[in-house]
Model the fold of this input.
Amino acid sequence: MSLIPLEIIEQQIFLIRGQKVMRDTELAKLYGVETFNLNKAVKRNLDRFPNDFMFQLTNEEVRTLTFQIGISNKGRGGRRTLPYVFTEQGVAMLSTVLNSERAIKVNIIIMRAFVKLREMLATHKDLALKIEALEGKYQQHDETIKEIFDAIRELMTPDPVPPTRRIGFNTDN
Done:
């Protein structure tokens, strides 16, 4: 079996319901089995797949995902059930259910892809925190500079000349 590039697998990992998941159809292709057979093997071992390992998509999630990844509508003769998606733990459990040499090798590659994505997300979070700190620092500097300019403007504004009293005799009384 030739190795599947991590980039290919990374493109097949989606964020649904706040979890990184892979669809049953992509997993079946990677494992070299039909989607129907993969799901049948899972259903024979449902006790190994709690809701945090695998769940079925809703119609709305399928539409959103289809739009997001650009899968064309197959029309008649296509899938009659909503797809299942598997979390990282569910994918790990699949190798025990499928129990083939290919499943084990593919699983190792998929686990590496999940780990790489997790590391990338952690890096992005660290970077976002650093940028946020810099923005706060510069915003504070901006406020300080504005105060300095306001003080300079105040010093540059001439004092208003107080009205002078006329000297002499006033006949208005």
The mean pLDDT is 81. The longest strand covers residues 19-23. The two ends are 114 Å apart (CA to CA).
